[in-house]
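User: Show me a protein chain along with its predicted structure.
Assistant: Here is one chain, sequence first, then structure tokens.
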Amino acid sequence: MQGPAIRIAGELGFFTVVLDGSSAAPCVAMADRFEQIDLKDKEGIETFARSLQDEPGGLGGIMTAGTDFSATVAWVAERLGLPGMPYETALNASDKGRMRSCFKKAGLPSPEFTTITAADGLDGGADGITLPAPFPLVVKPVDNMGGRGCRRVNDMGEFHAAAADALRFSRSGRAIVEAFMEGPEFSVDAIVYHGEIFICGLADRHIFFPPFFIEMGHTMPSQVSEERQRAILETFCAGVRALGLADGDNIGAAKGDIKLTPSGPMIGEIAARLSGGYMSGWTYPYSSGVEPIRAAILAAMGRNPGDLTPPKAWTSAERAFVSIPGTVKAIVGTEAARNTPHVRDLFLRTGEGEKVSFPENNVSKSGNVISAAPDRAAAVEAAENAARAILVRLDPSDQETAEFLLGGGNGEIFPPAAFGLSPELRDLLVALPETAAAASEDFRGENTVFLVPFPEFTASGLVDYLGRSVAESLAAVRELTGLSLPEIVTGSIIENTNASDNKSICLGKSFWASLAMGGYQGAVYFIDRLLDNRPISY
């Protein structure tokens, strides 16, 4: 997420110094200098920044993009007299408890809330906690990003587990409990310069997989009506001012998540930085021709951010792809994804031999695709097609995948089933003949592989996590395994496999159950287990 900032700073002729807690940070080589410092260590960063200030050429500014360390930036800027905003103001936009208090004081639409700590006796019950509203509620750490430790809870039993998780992800050991806001969500970016707020994009966010809030992509610009856009942006700007981000000569950025509830816009949260999630560095520049990060860098150097009027009106779509639990054996389709018309970028977040899990936050997805086109339909279609082109094959030796596939699929569990079967389809599935092999369970050699038909499923119109139909998922299975998988049309399994040589295999109930639960990944994993003579059955 820091890559565009480093690149643009270089294009502007600045000497770039980047900080990170890890020397393996992916964009280190793009900078002129790297210093390994934990981003939470604001005093250590201040000391290092003073040393830069004393060097020939001095230090012109400090900024961040896409991380929740705006308070560290403000701390250093305030103490060194650099352009920025007060540290206490930045804390208003970093600590969600303080944030909600600011909104409440200003009378802005924001959910009722309370903050909790481990000292509230969560293990022994919630008798000491006054919940802010009836269920459903949302529990999340006060000081983390990317949806870590954030989830919806529907009753007290769910609350205890969610609270423990949120506290685990909190650097300060505090979590916030707030009323759940119903409705679609939108993201806003803005530059703050001497009290003025310059909007840099409004995007539709696409949130899935409750009880977590997983953003499977966003589309820029929003397609909501102009009237509702105005209401969303007015609420956002009022929130920016309530936090003090636009007071006086403050300089910086603001990023907001706004819910459009049945009663109107409500503030999810506002941070004192530009957005992550590929919005400020990719989709808004692609769609508008404006680079918010360039403006943020200039502002951080005390310079006018320039004209932020969009010179074009395209659409840019970002879409994520995910995996069921397991270990990556291979990834195919990346070139096809990159070569999809209108696709600009592909970011892989996993690789061969790495563990994957179904995402419970926005930093554990398998990858992202970004497209840009003159019209919305073309951009969305390109991003979604490219995401579906990427196929992740899982290692059959990882038992975690089998445990997931055998875990259920009734639509109420997490991780969810790839295809949520109706009770009628589940009854039909249970009645199917089981996978059978006439003489050998080895698919290699001269064996013929057949597929028991399940026409009610294939014609159901159901789609998986990324919108693949059952037919498209079977095509992915054929691509990864190399099997043709012809169907048996009538009669019993063995009678219709032309198995005079007694070397035929027929994929039945357990294959279809694996496909329904895990999509193409589950079906391929099932076949690979058969190849290893370790079948799984339901």
